[in-house]
Amino acid sequence: IEYMSLKFGDTSLAYMTKSMRFKFLFFRGERLSILSQTSDMNLQTMARFTVGSAKYSVLDREMIDSLTGDISSTPYVVFNGKIRNKQSLLADAHSKMHFQIAEAVHLKDFIASFWMGDYTEAAKSSDIALSFPSSKMPKVQLVYHIFYR
């Protein structure tokens, strides 16, 4: 699906396919080292096609980095200085009213905090993510979010 989507210019479907595969691999228990490689490849691919998809892909990479303790990773470099870190990604999302990206940032924080055993921080991130109108839209992340909450 991904290859055909890219071939026909449907970058949104291609990203969604890559993103879904990544999340399914994560939640089925794939090794983080493999997910690190996968998220890096996804980020590079999406950065070539669309900035919007790269914003979500950088969050996948950042989540794996936080779980593995990789502080040397620089996933935001794909934005060429326009977005330098999570805070500037959030600021960009709020300024453009792209609340799904802001929600995704907090969902990523929720999942990472949950898996690191910081349930207080996970609950805070969950509450923030649920405050966005987009959090009520059906999506795979909502299922995982509610299950782990």
Overall description:
Helix 5 runs antiparallel to helix 6. The chain is built from 8 helices and no strands. The protein is globular, with a radius of gyration of 15 Å. Helices cover 72% and strands 0% of the residues. The longest helix is centred in the N-terminal third of the chain and has 18 residues. It is mainly alpha-helical.
Keywords:
single chain; 0% strand; mainly alpha; 149 residues; 8 helices; globular
Précis, in short:
The chain is built from 8 helices and no strands.
Question: Strands, helices and their partners?
Answer:
Layout: H1 2-7, H2 11-28, H3 32-49, H4 51-68, H5 86-95, H6 99-115, H7 119-130, H8 140-148
Helix pairs in contact: 2-3, 2-4, 3-4, 4-6, 5-6, 6-7
Could you tell me how far the N terminus lies from the C terminus, measured between alpha carbons in angstroms? Answer: 31 Å
Structural class: mainly alpha
* Helical content (DSSP H or I, runs of 4+): over 70%
What's the pLDDT, averaged over the residues?
A: 88
Global Rg: 15 Å
- Helical stretch count? 8
- Approximate shape: globular
Q: What fraction of residues sit in β-strands?
A: under 5%
Main beta sheet strand tally, sense and closure: none
* Strands, count: 0
Succession of helices and strands = HHHHHHHH
